[in-house]
Amino acid sequence: MIKIQIPATSANLGAGFDALGLALTYYNYVSMEESDTIDIKSLDNVDVPTDEKNLIYISAKDLFNVCGKNISGLKIRQTNNIPMARGMGSSSACIVAGLVGANELLGNPLTADDLVDLAAQIEGHPDNTAPALLGGIVTAVFDGKKVHWVKQEVYTKLKFVTIVPDFELKTEKARACLPTEVSHKDAVYNLSRAALFSSSLLTGKFENLRTAVHDKLHQPYRMALIPNAREVFDIAYNHGAYAAYISGAGPTIIAIVDEDNKYFSGKMKFSLDNAGLNGWQVNEYHIDNDGTKLI
Ligand code: HSE
């Protein structure tokens, strides 16, 4: 039985819609072995499909098909720490686990580039799948067939604080609310900030991050689907966050905070509770630079 560790991810990072993402030190675990039947179990109390509709199984089967191999079944055991439909890459973690596990079972016929491409084809965009596979902060352009990517390892004194509400927001719904066209001015607004984000993160110019996470492509529309998001942003900035943005398609909000701001999470939770927002969970993570690995 092989065991795989897959990181949670945070996509978009404000202005880098469908293009930027990073991996977090928060993990799902999947064990996998070949089997004549489909034998899937969740090892926690998270409800997952246990038949051929299971996303780990679907992704593993896709990889077998790409390699011209038949699959009769798989034994899969999954531990689902990353909450579903919260904008932290739970679907990508399943896709990546299926691909990495199947590739390992077949003796690793596909390269890292192949896996990045296949994962983006299954998910539709690369900004969660690529960092889940590679770790670090990933800049990725998907041309429909191939992902052109750069992974950069990040060693900073930043923590990424997830502020997770007690409700789900499905990506389909969070994409359906977006406009089909934007103005030239808004496009420039976003592309300049997306570029500013990675260069500021990597060079330590953290004072730029607040400007860099502003965007006009998705967050203004998604705010309406996340009750109390405005208050959460305000509280995070009041407690000294460098930046706060909607993680992926939401509804989780991530605050980027200096390590020296030791009591940020405690203050955040206290203020949220005081504002009657006690359904929001606050947790601290760092950037995972390794990506998915066998353990
Ligand atoms: N870039 C994607 C979005 C991430 O914002 O819809 C979620 O899969």
What do you see in this structure?
A hairpin with a 4-residue loop joins strand 5 (137-142) and strand 6. Helix 1 (55-66) crosses helix 2 (90-105) and helix 2 (90-105) crosses helix 3 (112-123). The protein has helices at 55-66, 90-105, 112-123, 129-134, 171-176, 184-203, 209-212, 219-222, 229-238, 264-274, and strands at residues 2-11, 20-34, 38-42, 74-79, 137-142, 147-152, 158-164, 243-246, 253-258, 281-285, 293-294. By secondary structure, the chain is α+β, with helices and mostly antiparallel strands. The radius of gyration is 19 Å and the shape is globular. It is built from 10 helices and 11 strands. The strands form 2 sheets. Strands 1, 2, 3, 4, 5, 6 and 11 form a 7-stranded mixed sheet that branches. A 4-stranded antiparallel sheet has the order 8-9-7-10. The model has no long low-confidence stretch (mean pLDDT 97). Bound molecules: L-homoserine. L-homoserine binds next to helix 5.
